[in-house]
From TrEMBL:
UniProt name for this protein: Glycerophosphodiester phosphodiesterase
PROSITE patterns to which the protein is assigned, alphabetical: GP_PDE
InterPro entries (alphabetical): GP_PDE_dom (IPR030395), PLC-like_Pdiesterase_TIM-brl (IPR017946)
SUPFAM superfamilies: PLC-like phosphodiesterases
Domain of life: Bacteria
Domain GP-PDE: from-to ranges: 57-322
Compositional bias ranges of the Low complexity kind: 13-30
Region (Disordered): 1-33
Length: 345
């Protein structure tokens, strides 16, 4: 894992253009921003950050290596690590019996052979479901399915059952190299603030919730909900947080973020139309983690802008585009799939 320390060029307020160019209609559309207007105070600016060099941009596997392998399964995350991803992204929801599970949608209908709302099902019920068969690509040496050909163990019993966050954390902490984990809280949900309470308690059990001064937890928490981010800040003040943005609210168009938040998570669609937003964030010392970057032209745009993390369904393709294919894995840090934790599916 590379250091995030960088040279600190002097602040240059004169390079801050006015916010008007982010006011186009495209930046005003997107998913509902029900909670973005909570927390009116913005962060103070820190030392400006330079654009990041391509070789230093961490590649984060979105829902695992989810283009090839069914999303949010252990198989998808193991596959991402084998491909050399620097980090993993997951969405979390609370079950009816208060377990955090990695599921994107409110319902399990799309990604499993079952039906129902995650928050009304107990973990034991979710464990009955198959989260793999909805997307089993034809085996092949290239493209979707290649992962299963290369690593047949990904098909083992249990690797496509519901994934608890606890199991994903075990995968992260047991891995022989440092792996980042970007956890997204999904809102709205009937459990509201209980999500953040259970999340911080679980991270605390792993010793990941309260990094000491000068240390960085491999975990960060992201949300489109500014309220959720504020709850995390209150419960775990030293944990890094990311405000996800489907559009940039007017008050943040100068590159500022809510107080205490130092990472913006804009969708790639925002940077396509407003590439200058990256420089604005960097000018105020804020970092930029971009989702979901799968196309070659979008990867190139992220490199050109010097973003601070690329979140992709295709970590292998992004690493290759960055000139890093296999580089870190072949450095002797690649575990055998079967060695990841054979007793725990
Ligand atoms: O990494 C952020 C991204 O995952 C947000 O969108 O809908 O894929 O969770 P979504
Ligand atoms: Ca997500």
């Amino acid at each position: 894992m590379q250091s995030t320390r960088r040279p600190e060029p002097p602040n240059s307020p004169s390079s801050l253009a006015g916010p008007s160019s982010l006011a186009g209609p495209s930046s005003l559309s997107g998913r509902p921003t029900h909670a973005l207007h909570v927390g009116l105070r913005t962060n103070a600016s820190g030392p400006a950050l330079p654009p990041r060099a391509a070789a230093d941009i961490p590649v984060i596997a979105h829902r695992g290596a989810s283009e090839d392998v069914p999303e949010h399964t252990l198989a998808a995350y193991e596959s991402a690590l084998l491909q050399g991803a620097d980090g993993l992204e997951c969405d979390v929801r609370l079950t009816a019996d208060m377990h955090l599970v990695c599921v994107h949608d409110r319902r399990v209908n799309r990604t499993s052979n079952g039906r129902g709302v995650v928050s009304t099902l107990e973990l034991a019920q979710l464990r009955q479901l198959d989260f793999g068969s909805w997307k089993q690509p034809a085996p092949g040496a290239e493209g979707p399915g290649a992962a299963y050909v290369e690593y047949p163990d990904l098909r083992r019993e249990g690797a496509h059952r519901v994934l608890t966050l606890e199991r994903l954390l075990e995968l992260v902490v047991d891995h022989p190299r440092r792996v980042e984990l970007a956890i997204e809280t999904k809102h709205p949900t009937r459990y509201a603030g209980l999500v953040e309470e259970h999340l911080v308690a679980l991270l605390d059990r792993f010793g990941l919730a309260h990094p000491r001064l000068g240390e960085r937890s491999p975990v960060r928490v992201m949300s489109f909900s500014a309220l959720s981010v504020r709850r995390i800040r209150r419960l775990a003040p030293s944990l890094e947080t990311v405000l996800l943005l489907d559009r940039v609210p007017l008050r943040f168009r100068d590159g500022s973020l809510p107080r205490g938040v130092r990472i913006a998570g804009p969708g790639i669609h925002i940077l396509r139309t407003h590439p200058e937003y990256v420089e604005r964030l960097h000018s105020l010392g804020n970092r930029v983690h971009v989702w979901t970057v799968d196309q070659a032209s979008d990867i190139d745009l992220c490199v050109e802008l010097g973003v601070d993390a690329i979140i992709s369904n295709r970590p292998k393709a992004v690493l290759a585009r960055l000139g890093r294919d296999g580089a870190r894995v072949s450095a002797g840090s690649q575990p055998a799939v079967t060695g990841l934790n054979p007793d725990k599916p």
